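Reopening this one. Same input as before:
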Amino acid sequence: MTALNDLADRYVDDLARLDPCLASAMGVAGQDGRLTDFGPQAAWERAELARRTAKEVETVPVEGDAERIAATVLGERLATEVALADTAAYATLLDTLDGPVQRIRQAVELLDQGSDTPWDALLARLGAVPDTLAGLRESLEAARRGGRVAPCRQVVRNARDCLDMRPYLEGLPAGPGARVPRDALDGAVAAANAALTRFAGYLTKELAPVAPRLDALGEDRYRLGVREFLGIRLDPREAYAWGWEELGRIQREMTGAAARIAPGEPLPAVLAALDEDPRYRIKGAAAFRDWLQQLADDTIAALDGTHFTVPEPLRRIDCRLSLSEGPAVYLAPSEDLSRPGTIWWTRAAPDALIPTWTVPGTMFHEGVPGHHLQLGTTALNTTLNRFQRLASELHPGHCEGWGLYAERLMDELGYFADPAHRLGMLATGQLLRAARVVLDIGLHLRLRIPSGTGFHEGERWTPELGRAFLAEHCGLGPAGFVDFEIDRYLGRPGQAVAYKLGEKVWLESRDAARRRDGAGFDLKLFHQQALGLGPMGLDLLRTELTRADRVD
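Same output, byte for byte:
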C-alpha cells in the first residue's frame, strides 16, 4: 500500500459515505441501505472533500509511471469537481439523465433482484426517500433565493419522472420467497410515493412558474461540461463543424447500406420496412429479454479467445428491462462482484412487437466488446488503485467513446454480416451520436445552422428545431424519445458529445499507435494495453496511448 493508493482508498470511502447513490452506481459496497443527502450542507461537505483531497494529491509521493498516471487521473478529476462547485454548476440540481431524482430511482432499482433482493436494504432506501427529497427541495429553494433556478424543461421533466416512479415502486414483488412482510413493503412504498407526489407538486406548482424558459447555458458553462465529461481541451465551434461533416459521411454510408437491402428504395422506406419485417420483430417483453440474453451470451462466446480475452467473471451479462423510457444503460459489476455487469434495456409492453434490427449494434456497445468488457476489465485490474477501478462513471468520454468504438470495431471484424444489423448500427449508433455533436453544441451556444445543410440554414438552434432535426435527419419517430433526447442535451451540457468525440480519440490514438509500431502493431495487444490504463480524460488517454517510449 503506497501513500497514493492509501489516499485513493480513503477518498473512495469518504465519497461513498457522502454520496451513497453514486457509490451504488460505482459498485462500492457498504452503503446499500442509504440514499444521498442532497441538502445544502451535504453538498458543501462533498465539495470540501474534493478540495481537501486535491491538495493532498499535490503533495503525495509518487513512484513510477503507473503512479504518475494514477495521480494525474485523480488530481484532474478532483480539480474538475472543485471547478464545478466553485461555479455552482449544479446548484439547481435538476437534469433529465443523471440528476438526484434519477439517482434515487436507480439506487432502488439496483436492489430489485427478484428472489435475491436484499429486502432490509431496500426497505431502508425506500424509507429514506422522503428525507432525501426534502433535502433536495431545501437546496433548490436555497438556489432559488440566490437567483438560480433550473430551466423549466428540466423542472417539468423531473416532476414527470417522480410520478413515473410510483407505479414501479407499487409493483415491487414481495411474494412467498421475499422474506419481507407485505405490509412493511406496502407502508414503505406508500410513504415514498407520497413524498414523490409532494415533490412533483412542488416542482410543477412552485418552481416551474419561476423557472427560465431559455435552455442554452452558454459557452463558458459548456466548456466546463466538456471538461467534466470528456477531460479534453475542445474548440466547440471546430467540433460543431466536424459534427456536420461526420453526419454527412454517415448518411452517405447509410444510403449505400440501404441500397444493399432494397435497391432503388429511398432510405426512409427501407428503415420503415425493417421495423415491420417479421424477421426482425419479437413479440412480448419476456421473449425480447430472453433474446437479448442469448445475443449477449453468444457474442461473448464468439469473441473470447479470438480478438479479446474475456475473464471468467465477465462471461455473463445480466440483461434486464428498465422502468425508464430512456436509452439502454450498462452498469459495471460491483467491487466485490456480488452484482454482475448489467444491461437495462428500454421498457416494453408485455405483448408489444419489438423491432430487433438495431439491437446488435447497441449490444456490442453496452456488452462485449463494449462497456461490459471495458468496465469489467477495469474492475478486475488490481494494478490500478481503487479509485481508478471504480471511477468509470466519472469518465464518460473514455467509456462512451470506447462503446462507440466497439461498434465500429465489430463492423471491421465482420460481425455485421446481416445488412439490416449493419444499417441498424449506423442508424442508432453512429448517426444519432454525430447528430448529438451538432445539437448539443449548437443548442447550448445558440449557433447558426450552416449553409449547404438544407435545414433551416442561417437560423439559430432552438429546441423546436432540434426536435425537427432529429425527426428529419435521424428518423426518430416516437415523440417521447425525441423529447427525451432534447431534454437530455439541454440538461447536461457536454455529455452527449462524449460518444462521438470519445470514439474519435480512440480511433486517432489507434492509428497513431499503428504508425508508431509499423509491422509490429498487434490489435489485440493494443486493446489489452489500452484497457489496462483504466478510465481517464481523453487528453491524457491520447498522450498515453501514443507515447513514443510506451512500454508495457
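So the earlier flakiness isn't reproducible anymore. For the record, The radius of gyration is 23 Å.
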